[in-house]
Recover the amino acids of this structure.
């Protein structure tokens, strides 16, 4: 039996790989789960493909072929809240959203602050529809009091540390976390909201919170948190990543610190570049309750500016599943968080690309090579020898967000009913199709 030169060939697609500076119609060649080539159609290529049977070809005519998308901020809820999501269901949602890799947050029960729990998550993630990278906790049980055994966490494979959901309020502990992370060469990812200023707050402090009589989480809580940590990153030289940035002043502070050469990066979520706090008073939809909160139109514009000029490096979802029972209550009683992996691509296309803020290459960069470089993850590119993690996107597919179509176990999305354009058509993980629409 002769072995085939390629296992799968994706033909006719517009291949966009920002890492390679590539944006052309081309063939993507896959062999043994790896990228074997990205090539323009030539006589030599046609000859090389002559013996490949028809069923090994995927026709991507009118579609985009990009490196598998990476989401560096998801809550998979396992262990502890499997009714809301499991690692398996979260990975199925990821694949449907076009993500081939996700980074899961440590606010599980038990918390991911020890080797056993990391190992548990890694074991459960085997054979799922996406690669799962683990962020370990900065402090034990996310309590902000005592550092986790960071060396132990790194040696078992965590790619970053975070207390996501909580700000590391004690600056001495944060400083030491940065020093350790510098020694181990991993980033610290920070949920930057000062906890004293946010205490009990459920929405952005603004005209709207006053009108609605809701306890506020002010923008200055994010600004102060970011400024303090920029100062700590400056003196430690450590790699600091700001999670879900939402305010104009935080974006400005990060922009200036980057100009100074401080080792920081940042992400923004679709809900913060699409929504404003005006939405909340309409129906008190508890799916709009999220930390950090949805801000004003001015903040939203600043986040978009930050995405445009590169101040914000990544688009991440903060996919945070909660069950229907948990969200079926008054706005200020609901847990914070919304799911996001299955709507992300459509929101990016409809609200950033169609509006002329980003082109496809810029958007793909923020969901592939940028996160891969920051957290040292596999993939993020179609370079030869990379894992064959590939997302095929139908850029103009019009679709309506419907609760019944989510693959996530939870349906807590404020975007249900939205009409979007652009969606993943096919997701390939290590050369295998894990999702096909
Ligand atoms: O709204 C949020 N929900 N923000 C967080 O930081 C945590 C997340 C969760 O775990 O539900």
């Amino acid at each position: 039996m002769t072995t085939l030169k390629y296992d799968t060939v994706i033909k006719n697609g517009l291949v966009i790989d920002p890492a390679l500076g590539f944006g052309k119609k081309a063939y993507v060649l896959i062999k043994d789960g790896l990228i074997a080539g990205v090539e323009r159609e030539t006589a030599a290529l046609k000859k090389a493909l002559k013996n490949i049977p028809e069923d090994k070809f995927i026709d991507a005519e009118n579609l985009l072929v990009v490196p598998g998308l990476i989401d560096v901020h998801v809550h998979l809820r396992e262990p502890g809240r499997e009714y809301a999501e499991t690692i398996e269901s979260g990975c199925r949602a990821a694949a449907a959203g076009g993500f081939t890799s996700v980074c899961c947050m440590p606010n599980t029960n038990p918390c991911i602050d020890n080797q056993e729990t990391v190992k548990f998550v890694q074991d459960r993630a085997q054979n799922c529809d996406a690669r799962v990278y683990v962020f370990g906790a900065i402090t034990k049980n996310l309590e902000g009091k005592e550092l986790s055994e960071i060396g132990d966490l790194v040696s078992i494979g965590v790619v970053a540390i975070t207390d996501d959901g909580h700000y590391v309020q004690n600056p001495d502990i944060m400083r030491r976390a940065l020093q350790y992370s510098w020694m181990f060469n991993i980033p610290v990812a920070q949920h930057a909201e000062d906890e004293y200023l946010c205490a009990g707050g459920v929405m952005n402090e603004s005209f709207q919170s006053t009108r609605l009589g809701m306890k506020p989480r002010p923008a200055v809580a994010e600004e102060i948190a970011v400024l303090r940590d920029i100062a700590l990153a400056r003196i430690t030289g450590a790699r600091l990543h700001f999670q879900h940035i939402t305010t104009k002043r935080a974006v400005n502070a990060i922009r200036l610190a980057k100009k100074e050469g401080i080792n920081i990066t940042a992400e923004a979520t679709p809900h913060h570049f699409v929504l404003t706090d005006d939405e909340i008073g309409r129906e008190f939809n508890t799916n709009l309750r999220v930390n950090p909160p949805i801000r004003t139109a001015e903040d939203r514009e600043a986040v978009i500016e930050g995405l445009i000029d590169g101040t914000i490096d990544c688009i991440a979802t903060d996919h945070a599943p909660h069950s229907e029972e948990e969200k079926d209550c008054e706005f200020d009683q609901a847990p914070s968080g919304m799911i996001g992996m299955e709507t992300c691509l459509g929101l990016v296309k409809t609200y950033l690309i169609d509006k002329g803020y980003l082109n496809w290459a810029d958007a793909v960069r923020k969901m592939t090579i940028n996160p891969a470089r920051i957290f040292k993850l596999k993939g993020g590119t179609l370079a030869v020898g990379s894992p064959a993690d590939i997302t095929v996107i139908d850029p103009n597919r019009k679709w309506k967000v419907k609760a019944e179509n989510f693959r996530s176990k939870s349906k807590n999305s404020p975007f249900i009913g939205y009409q979007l354009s652009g969606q993943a058509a096919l997701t390939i993980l290590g050369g295998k199709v894990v999702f096909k629409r």
About this structure: The chain has 16 helices and 18 strands. The radius of gyration is 21 Å. The chain has a mean pLDDT of 97.
